[in-house]
Design brief:
Blueprint lengths: L7 E4 L2 E4 L39 H14 L6 E5 L7 H7 L6 E4 L4 H13 L7 H17 L2 E4 L6 H15 L5 E4 L8 H6 L25 H8 L4 E4 L6 H11 L6 H15 L19
Parallel strand pairs: 3-4, 4-5, 5-7, 6-7
Antiparallel strand pairs: 1-2
Helix pairs in contact: 4-5, 7-8, 8-9
């Protein structure tokens, strides 16, 4: 939507005028803002009782009180990659953020796993996201110096090969880095037994096919938590739940128990947002065709 002279912010279904020109560039349609500034100037809209993301002022104050009660300690996690082929600028920028503690990289989707399985079939030492290895060479010295831990699912279909590649780079750079590789998600070896038991397709009820290109089970956050507890500087996984890369960090840092459902849910939500990378701030914007110079 074009920004008029006074500017406007679409909030909910209807756009409302913004009298403060500082906010004229904040144009969204049908979604809540994700940044911390108010979505309109209070002086220009005295009747506005809502703050960022449409939360009422009263509710926002309540949330702030709860956060203070929990404590001031925070964990700073950067999301450097939302998919295989994402921009390499993210990792470089996040390393320079003051106080950064962890950087997570999400590379995998079902289609990606199929592509990696095909690559591994042609060349057994492949099958992982080579993008990660390339960026590690660039950022690992700074991460090691500043105590930033890297957590990724770049292992794809071959996490051990990915770990070996990162280990070689660390040796070339003269860095004594502890690298944790998490595997066990590849379940191809179980299919003969499953077929003998008469296992069928969950949705269609059809018998299992005679052959598979790949088959992986989603691992969760606990293996990542355990790797961090053992002092890993780099954690490389195969197929894990996307949000687990963040949730595993939070369980490690805050010592959450596995029956603390509310905190685990909050950590999972944070993980889902962070693992999407910049997609969480409009990368999947539906009105992309209206952005000048797109």
């Amino acid at each position: 939507a074009a920004v008029e002279d006074l500017g406007q912010v679409a909030h909910g279904d209807q756009a409302r005028k913004v009298r403060d020109l500082r906010y004229r560039d904040h144009v969204f349609r049908g979604v809540a803002e994700l940044h911390g500034r108010a979505d309109r100037a209070a002086s220009g809209d005295p009747g506005c009782g809502r703050g960022p993301a449409g939360i009422s002022r009263k509710a926002q104050a309540g949330l702030e009180r709860q956060m203070k009660a929990i404590g001031e300690r925070t964990v700073r996690i950067g999301g450097a990659s939302g998919f295989w082929g994402d921009s390499s600028l993210g990792p470089r920028q996040l390393v320079e953020v003051a106080g950064m503690q962890y950087i997570s990289f999400d590379y995998l989707a079902e289609l990606t796993m199929s592509i990696l399985a095909s690559a591994k079939a042609k060349k057994p030492e492949l099958g992982y996201a080579t993008d990660f290895v390339e960026v590690v060479r660039e950022i690992l010295p700074a991460c090691f110096k500043r105590g930033i831990t890297l957590v990724c699912n770049a292992g794809g279909m071959n996490p051990n090969a990915c770990g070996a590649a990162v280990r070689n780079i660390a040796a070339e750079l003269g860095l004594n880095v502890r690298i944790a590789v998490i595997d066990g998600d590849d379940i191809m070896s179980h299919f003969s037994a499953l077929r003998e038991r008469g296992t069928r397709d969950f949705y269609t009820g059809r018998p299992m096919p005679e052959s598979f290109g790949s088959a992986n089970a989603y691992l969760g956050a606990l293996p990542i938590t355990r790797a961090l507890a053992q002092g890993a500087n780099v954690v490389i996984t195969g197929r894990v739940v996307d949000s687990a890369m963040v949730l595993g960090v939070l369980i490690h840092e805050f010592g959450w128990s596995m029956d603390d459902w509310d905190r685990l849910a909050a950590g999972s939500l944070a993980g889902h947002i962070i693992e999407c990378g910049c997609q969480a701030t409009g990368g999947l914007y539906t009105d992309w065709d209206q952005i000048p110079n797109w």
